[in-house]
Amino acid sequence: MPRIAGVDIPEKKKVRYALRYIYGIGPRYSDVILSEAGVDPEKKASELTDQEVSQISSVIDGGYLVEGALRRQVQQHIQRLRDIRAYRGDRHRRGLPVRGQRTRCNARTRKGRKKTVAGKKGVKAH
Amino acid sequence: MSRSLKKGPFVNEKLFKKVMMQSEAGPGSRRPIRTWARACTIVPEFVGFTFQVHNGKVFTEVFVTEDMVGHKLGEFSPTRMFRGHTNKKEGIKRA
After folding, report:
1. Interface contact flag, A84 B78, Cβ < 8 Å
2. Of B76, B85, B88, which has the smallest distance from its Cβ to A85's Cβ?
3. Which numeric CATH code is attached to A3-64?
4. Tell me, what DSSP letter sits at residue A14?
5. Closest Cα of chain B to A101: distance in Å?
6. How far apart are CA A99 and CA A84, in angstroms?
7. Domain coordinates in residue numbering, chain A
8. ipTM score
9. pTM over 0.80
10. pLDDT of A17-40, one tens digit each?
C-alpha cells in the first residue's frame, strides 16, 4: 500500500482520486501535482512504483501544505481573528456561523445537535 | 465577493486626514479619534492609534495593532449584545 504525506494510504482507486484522500488535496491540486510529478493520473494507486510514490511525495513536500501543517495554519488564522477580537473571532469563540448566516433556525453544523427548550412554541413538553 | 483591487481599499478620507494630522504632530499628541466610519478599512498608517468606533449606541475603544490591518473598523465594535435567553422564572437575565 502506498503511503504519501504521512498516514494516508489510499488504494484501489486511480491516483487522481486516491490523492484526494489527503487533507488539502482536492480535484484541482490532485491533477496539478500528478502532472508536476509526471505520473499517469489514470493509473491505479496500488500499481504505483516506489519511484513514482517518492516522486509524488517530493512534489507535495516541495510546495503544498497538507495534513497537519495545513490544519495548523487554519487554526492559526482562526486564532488570529480571536486574538484581535474581531467580530469573526467572536463568532468562532461562540461556535456560531461566522459569515452572516441566519441562526434563527438551521446553523446546525456550527451549533451542534439540537438542544430542545421546553415550552418553546411548537415543542411539546415530555 | 471581495472588492475590486482596481479601486484599492476603502478608507474614509476625513478619518485618514485626521490620522495623518496627528501622526505628523508627533507621537505625543495622539488622542483617541471618535468615528462613525465603521466601513473604513484599517490601513498600516492607523497602527498604534486608538479609535472610538460607534456601534449605534456607544463608542467602543479600539486600539489598532498590526494584525488588524485589512479589517474594517466596525469589526471591532460589536453592534449586538447577547446576554442569554430569557428565563421564565427569573425574567430577563442581566449580566
Report:
1. no
2. B76
3. 1.10.8.50
4. B
5. 15
6. 17
7. 3-64, 68-111
8. 0.72
9. no
10. 988 888 899 999 999 999 998 888
